[in-house]
Amino acid sequence: MEERADVIHHLLLDTQDTWVIQETAEALLARKDTIGLRYVLLACSRADTNDAADQLGAALACNPQWMTPEGAD
To answer: Are 12 and 21 in contact, with CB atoms under 8 Å apart?
Structure first.
């Protein structure tokens, strides 16, 4: 997954289509692992448009199943 980090980052911050952001974030969070969660959180911190930030925030806030087996930490 790390060799695809640039592509994932681009998808999570797509300024042309929030559907792409939503689907990518949900797919990463569905993995229920730390790496997927970190990608979404990193993108959320670097979002430069309100639309991207809102979409990423919604993916995190609307689905509590994103938590990893390690818990909320």
So the answer is: yes
Q: Rounded to whole angstroms, how far apart are CA atoms 14 and 37?
A: 18
Q: How far is CA 17 from CA 2, 7, 49, in A?
A: 23, 15, 12
Spell out a b/e string for 11-32, using b for 16 or more CB atoms within 10 Å of the CB, else e.
bbbbeeebebbbebbeebbeee
Q: Three-state DSSP class for 1?
A: coil
Q: Residue 69's pLDDT is what?
A: 61
Which pLDDT tens digit goes with each residue over 59-71?
Answer: 888 755 555 566 5
* Helix or strand holding residue 54 (H, E): helix 50-61
Separation CA 51–CA 6 (nearest Å): 20
- Measure the N-to-C terminal CA separation of the chain; round to a whole number of Å: 22
